[in-house]
What we know:
Blueprint: H1 2-35, H2 38-41, H3 58-79, H4 88-97, H5 115-131, H6 139-169, E1 173-174, E2 177-178, H7 192-206, H8 212-228, H9 237-298
Antiparallel strand pairs: 1-2
Amino acid sequence: MKKKKTTSSATTAAAGDLKTLIRSHSAFFDRLVSLVPPKFYISGAADDDRPYFNGLSKAAKASLRKQSRENTKKSRRDRFNPDAPSSTLDLLHQSLENPNPKNSSPNPSSGSLTYEELRARLRQRIEDLRSGRNTRPKPHETHKRKREEDDDEEIEEQQKEEPKEEKLNLNDLSYGKIKTGESKKKKKKLTKAQALEKAKRLEELKKDPEKGEAITKKQSWKTAASRAAGEKVHDDPKLIKESIKKEKRRQQKHAEKWKERVDSRESSRKEKQKTRSDNIKRGSSRRRQGGSRRGRRSS
Length: 299
């Protein structure tokens, strides 16, 4: 009997010691928890309720900013409320008692989005842009297309105007020239001396009583055709002589001007050469005089 009593008392003492040990450990951990700020220990605390704005629209950002300001004001008021839980341990007990708070909404889109959700949205947006990147015309492509359309319109207008020009070119007369349809080589233009000799021969042939009338008629027709084509006709020996004299006078005048220019250039060159040689002589004489003076001073 004594042995049974001793064993039962030992077990009760051991149980009492275990409870005391557990209580002491619990109190120790509670004190440790109370030292940690709530925002680092409890998820969803008032101080940690900061929304993640990246990837949201302007309206969603504005609503989340407003909600965060209200939460900040509420947390400041709760600090001075004696009935409100202030320590980390009290907030932990409150969260354990109310696992589903009233503020939490089942719809995740109403609250702040997580980092993974935002990344998923970004990936989806990139895929949408890649799939539809060739559907939207780029600005330089639109300008290029517009230029091509304008070029096509100009080509069509030119093609419409070309037949009109061809019809006009089919006419026999253009700018006073007669088209005979024969492709002849261009004749070399006669000099004034050759034209004068030709005019003198024609004047002599016109004086012939047998052939003079026919030559005069033929020459008059040729002169009329040449003047109608816009060509100058030199058939008067007096006028040709006057033009030759004028040209000679003009050439003589140009030659005189050229000679004056060459003479003035040569005279200016000689003057410069003379000035240079005079300067050299003057400098050498000065150097000689300076050397003689130094010799006298030294002696």
